[in-house]
Amino acid sequence: MGIASNSVRVALMPGDGIGVEVMDAAAGVLEKLVKRHGLGLSTETLAAGAFAYRETGTAMSEEVFRRAEASDAILLGAMGWPGIRYPDGTEIAPQLDLRFRLGLYAGVRPIRAIPGVPLALAHPRAKDIDLVILRESTEGLFWARGRGEMVGDREARDTMVITRATTERLSRFAFRLAERRAARLGRAQKVTLVDKANVFTSMAFMRKVFREVAAEFPGVPAGEHYVDAMALDLVRRPWDFDVLPMENMFGDILSDLGAGLVGGMGYAPSADVGDTHAVFQPSHGTGPDIAGKGVANPTAMILSAALMLDWLGARGAGQAWSDAATELEGAVDAAFANGLRTAEFGGVGTLDAARAIAERIPG
Question: Looking at residues 14-32, what average pLDDT do you find?
Answer without folding.
Answer: 97
